[in-house]
Amino acid sequence: MNANERKSRITTLRACLRCPVYALSLLVCVAVADVAADSGGGADDPPGNALNPHTPLPGGQIDELGYSLFSTVAFSPSGILYPLVYQYPWLHPEPAPGPEDETTPEWHFGGLIEAGFLADFGTTDAAGFREFADFDDGPLVNRFALVAEHARRGDRVELIGAGPGRDDQYFALDYRRPGTFEINAWYNRIPHVFSTNARVLWDGAGSGTLTLPDGLEPGASTPQQVRAALLSRGESTLKLDRKRVGLAGTLLALDNLNAFFKASSEWRNGERPFGGTFDYPTLGQVTETVEPIDYLTHEVDAGMHYTGRRIQANLTWSSSFFINDTDALVWENPGLSILQPDFVAPRGRTALAPDNRFHQIQADLAIALPVMHGRWTSTLAYNCKTQDDDLLPPTISTGVGNNAGVPVNFDLWNTPGALSRTSADAKIRTALLQSEVSLLPTRRLRTSLKLRALDEDNDTHFETFNPQTGEYGRIPLDGGLLFDDGIFQPGRPGELLRIANVPYETDELEITADADYRLTRSTRLAATLSYDRTDHAHRQRSTTRDKRVRLQLSDRAGPWASLRLAVETARRDGDDYQIDPQAPFLSASLAGFVPRFEDGTRPRELADLREFDLASRDQRVADGQLRFNPGTLSDLAISGRWVHDDFDAGFGLREQTRLSTNAEWNYQFHERGNAYVYYSFQAHDREAANINDAGPSAPDPFAGGEVFPLANLWRQNLDETNHGAGLGLTRQWKQFLFEIDYTFGYARAEQALRFNSGGALSSGIGLDAAGDSLPDSVFERHLLRASLRFPINRHVGAQLLYRLESEDIEDPNFAGLDDPLVDNQLFLLAVPEDFTAHLVGVLLEFRFGGTDE
Description:
Layout: H1 3-18, H2 20-35, E1 107-122, H3 127-130, E2 138-150, E3 156-162, E4 170-177, E5 181-198, E6 209-210, H4 223-231, E7 236-254, E8 257-274, E9 289-307, E10 311-324, E11 328-332, E12 347-351, E13 356-368, E14 375-387, E15 400-401, E16 408-409, E17 426-439, E18 445-459, E19 465-466, E20 471-473, E21 487-488, E22 493-494, E23 506-518, E24 523-536, E25 543-556, E26 561-574, E27 594-595, E28 609-610, E29 617-631, E30 634-647, E31 651-670, E32 673-691, E33 713-733, E34 736-755, H5 767-770, E35 773-791, E36 796-810, E37 821-822, E38 825-826, E39 835-848
Parallel strand pairs: 6-11, 22-27, 28-31
Antiparallel strand pairs: 1-2, 1-39, 2-3, 3-4, 4-5, 5-7, 7-8, 8-9, 9-10, 10-13, 11-12, 13-14, 14-17, 15-16, 17-18, 18-23, 19-20, 20-21, 23-24, 24-25, 25-26, 26-29, 29-30, 30-31, 31-32, 32-33, 33-34, 34-35, 35-36, 36-39, 37-38
């Protein structure tokens, strides 16, 4: 770049900084950085909704010239035939330049708007039909687009949108100056419907306080009173709305250097089903409540990219803040209990998701090495997650409770003075290093060596110490949990209680070596060796080691077929399994602890139980892919993967097998018509086993002992199968475009059970009642979509659309649940519904601008 070019670039850069749009984007970036971030994905989600799943700019007209003068078909780099919608370029609404003279305006405009009417019928109020879409009948603006171009500078502005005023609307604005900068802004909204048939007992759903209706006394209502109150209330819809707004920009400062930023904010407001209880399930008091959703999330990313001839580098900073305006849910207890305890909690309280922050800085570097056509790439990242919300006192109850036989003065536990610290002050820091060197020693051989190191530090400490009483512990279920006061009292025989949080940490080192050798002109053989060591803090195994070997053969038999086969074997082992690695965080570590039994206390879990992510494991993997191109107009792809895990565990997850297959065929039967059909199958088999404890009769934690007798052993085999199929057809007749597609999904879960005796079951359930299996869970879904687009004249087009959606669900967890009050247990009745719904639309598209023919 010479001096004049550099001066011109700097002048342009200054002009951009003075540009109101760019200045606004910088201000938004700074403002958002001060407050804060998100969880649910990137800020640059592609625009779309259920009626416009693809790019919204194309209409029913295509460019007759196509992409090529020599071929009417197009394949992806891997040989897959592109659908017809991508075979021809669509005619976008282009600006009309007009005559070139001194009076010609510098900005030229073009655009489209598509509007019409929707009609839906069938079971349209079901949550499954309304989730993630707004299909309400009535008028709608389905989509619109406005395009403007500056004749001299080449600036281009695109504004697109769909469904304004509806729950699934979106808008996107793009402003770019070629070779200098680009600004993007967007807004979208998505509804998430959980239930449309919920029976909510309380007033105040959606807020942090749920109160019983008139006529019900907290903690002292009878089942008859509760049932009468429920019958007087209608069905409620539980849903949340997600709204996201964002701004992003890219600036090309120099030929090989550009900077970018991205800022977004997301609001989630509504309510969803939530749990709650005041006692053991078999004693009543199980209570389904409603959780308020009032989330605000901000996300900011900024960075620079450098691209040189031999060096490429990135520097990125990311920050996010999550804000929950409701810190706790408080609900009044109806008081449904089979027993008549000395104390019934009139209210319950549950802490909700805390505010939290995330910051990360990451540097990437890639250098071309001077030997063996080598390349070195490396990434260094550091992030910090924090949350410092105010902590809630152990209970909201008042007075004295005596359910566990020992009086507890709740007034000494329901204030912040009962906490060892008043805020969480939780931090987790993670450092990551990834580095890879790849070399080509010969024309046939490519090798690489990769290193990945992760170091996690959990700086979170809290003790359940009450300075007002000098005791450790908690108040379970606001004092409603019978037989367990949860408080450590020196000198009194008791159970193991959690007295501090467990700061879990993970450190990992992974080394991977790859080699890829070209056996023949079309055949390659690749091998991968990897070793992964992970250190776990306060887990049953402090170290696990994974060793993996993979071989892959690929062959390209000319332009008509390709084959890839791979096999893999892996072994995980580690150090000795510890029975209770969390002993320092339990009451047994305190002075004055007296075990319930002479030689110990009740075990917290079966010592022979193995957690699946720590257990020793032998894994076998096989996968393959076969692709045919029998001609220039079709392709057939078949793939499959089989994974078998054998865990060295007598109890826990013992074995699992996963199988997935997929077949897809595409055929272009006409230069403006193609069709496809596909089928996929997945199967997942799992085997698990455990022992139901026989009660606190001894300290023996091993299988076959007094606490875990083999007579109480049970086994479960879960067999899940999923089928997916679909077909579609697209056909263009001159300017008429017809599209139709159908998808089908079917899933079934079967559970076989085996019990050594009735002791493996909960009390009150016999072997005959339990049987040898649970009812199958079945899910079936059908979706049919069809549309016909055609022009009325050069500026007006029409679209006719039809959509059929159907779901059938058999879930044994909800079987027979048609009463919100079952054995003194209160349910919302938010039961999944079968539905069949239809949608019909008539839309007109109006275009303006463009060059007259």
